[in-house]
From TrEMBL:
Pfam families: MDD_C, MVD-like_N. This is diphosphomevalonate decarboxylase. Residues 11-159 form the Diphosphomevalonate decarboxylase-like N-terminal domain. It is an enzyme of class 4 (lyase). Belongs to the diphosphomevalonate decarboxylase family. Residues 185-310 form the Mvd1 C-terminal domain. InterPro entries: GHMP_kinase_C_sf, Mev_decarb, Mev_diP_decarb, MVD-like_N, Mvd1_C, Ribosomal_Su5_D2-typ_SF, Ribsml_uS5_D2-typ_fold_subgr. The keyword Transferase does not apply. It comes from the Bacteria. It comes from Streptomyces ficellus.
Length: 331
C-alpha cells in the first residue's frame, strides 16, 4: 500500500484518428506532422512515484522489476524531470497497466502520461496540462495526447520556431461527435514483432511512400477537424480508416517491410466492410499491432461488438471518450 508521500496518477490510452508516424527529431520526440486522437475510458494505467534516498531508481511494471529498454526509457525520463527540477533524488516508480504492454494498445501513451503527471508532481515541476503534454511527449510521442480527455490534437510544432520543443504540445478539441464509440477487438495480445519506435524510424528512413503519407495525413487532418466540429461521424470514420490503412501501407514500403497486420486482423477488417455493406456505420482503425479498433456510433456499439466477438480472442471491449490524466482522487 503506497504511503502518504507517494504521488499517484491515472491516465487512459488514446487512439489516433489521424496517426502520428514519423519523427523529425528523435531526441526531442518531435513529429513530422500533427495528429489527432480520442482518449478512451477503458484500459487505464495507474502510476505511483515516490522519491527515495536510494542511489538508483526502482521501476516496477505490472508487479515485475522493469528490465532492458523499458527500464532505460523510464529512467531517462526521470533524468529529464530531475534535470528540470534540479534534483538528484532517485525515485521508486510502480506502474500498473490494464492492457498487455507492447501489443499496440497504446500502453506507452497512458503510461508516460501517468508517469509525467506523477513525476512532475513528486519533483515539484509545473503540472499545467499544456506544459505536461510537452513533458509527456519526451517519454512517448502519443503520451502528449493522453494528458487530455476527449478529442485531442498534438501539434507537430515548427522546425523554424526559436524553441522547437516549446512549439510541440497537445490541446483538447471541441467536437460535436459526442456519440462516437470505439470497439476494441483483441485478436492477439502478445508483444509486437518490432517496437513502434524502431518501425517508425525505419519507415522514415527507407519507405519511398513516406513523403506521400505526410502529404495525405496533412490533408486528412483538415478534413477530420471539420468533420469533428460538424458532428459528421461518417466522414470521421472514413478518414480514420483510410489514414490508418495508409500508415500500414507506408510501413509495408519500408526496407525490410514492417508488417503488424495478421490474417486475424484482415478477417476483422473484412467483417467491418461487410457491416458497412449491411448499412451499419462502422470503420476500422489500427495502430502498431494487429488489434483492430472499430469506430461507430454509441447506439451501434453493442451490435458491432457482438458481430466481431467470434473473430476476437477476448470479448470485444466498447469504449467511449474518456478523461485526461489526473492525480488519484481528483478525477
Ligand atoms: C499514434 N502510434 O498516433 C501512432 C499510430 C502507433 C501507430 O504513436 O516513439 O509509442 O514513443 O514517440 O507514441 C505509437 O508510437 O512512439 C504511436 P514514440 P509511440 O498513436
Amino acid at each position: 500500500m503506497p504511503g502518504p508521500d507517494v504521488v499517484t496518477a491515472v491516465a487512459y490510452p488514446n487512439i489516433a484518428l489521424v496517426k502520428y508516424w514519423g519523427k523529425r527529431d528523435e531526441r526531442l520526440v518531435l513529429p513530422c506532422a500533427d495528429s489527432l486522437s480520442m482518449t478512451l475510458d477503458v484500459f487505464p494505467t495507474t502510476t505511483h512515484v515516490q522519491l527515495t534516498p536510494h542511489a538508483q531508481d526502482i521501476v516496477i511494471v505490472d508487479g515485475v522489476t522493469a528490465q532492458g529498454e523499458m527500464a532505460r526509457r523510464i529512467t531517462s525520463f526521470l533524468d529529464l524531470v530531475r534535470k528540470r527540477a534540479r534534483s538528484k533524488r532517485c525515485a521508486r516508480v510502480e506502474t500498473r497497466n490494464t492492457v498487455p504492454v507492447g501489443a499496440g494498445l497504446a500502453s506507452s501513451a497512458s503510461g508516460f502520461a501517468a508517469l509525467a503527471l506523477a513525476a512532475a508532481t513528486a519533483y515539484g515541476l509545473p503540472t499545467e496540462p499544456k506544459e505536461l503534454s510537452r513533458l509527456a511527449r519526451r517519454g512517448s510521442g502519443s503520451a502528449a495526447r493522453s494528458v487530455f480527455g476527449g478529442f485531442v490534437i498534438w501539434h507537430a510544432g515548427s522546425p523554424d520556431a526559436p524553441d522547437p520543443d516549446r512549439s510541440s504540445y497537445a490541446e483538447p478539441l471541441t467536437s460535436a461527435c459526442t456519440d462516437l464509440a470505439l470497439v476494441a477487438v483483441l485478436v492477439d495480445t502478445g508483444p509486437k514483432p518490432i517496437p513502434s519506435r524502431e518501425a517508425m524510424r525505419r519507415t522514415v528512413a527507407t519507405s519511398p511512400l513516406f513523403p506521400d503519407w505526410l502529404m495525405q495525413t496533412r490533408h486528412d487532418m483538415t478534413v477530420m477537424r471539420r468533420a469533428l466540429a460538424q458532428g459528421d461521424i461518417t466522414t470521421v470514420g472514413e478518414i480514420a480508416e483510410r489514414n490508418a490503412l495508409g500508415m500500414h501501407e507506408t510501413m509495408a514500403g519500408a526496407v525490410p517491410p514492417v508488417r503488424y497486420l495478421t490474417p486475424a486482423s484482415h478477417r476483422v477488417l473484412e467483417e467491418v466492410c461487410r457491416l458497412r455493406d449491411q448499412g451499419v456505420g462502422a470503420w476500422a482503425t489500427v495502430d502498431a499491432g494487429p488489434n483492430i479498433k472499430v469506430l461507430c456510433s454509441g447506439g451501434d456499439a453493442e451490435q458491432v461488438a457482438v458481430r466481431l466477438r467470434e473473430l476476437s480472442r477476448r470479448p470485444a471491449v466498447v469504449a467511449r471518450s474518456g478523461p485526461g490524466a489526473a492525480l488519484y482522487g481528483t478525477q
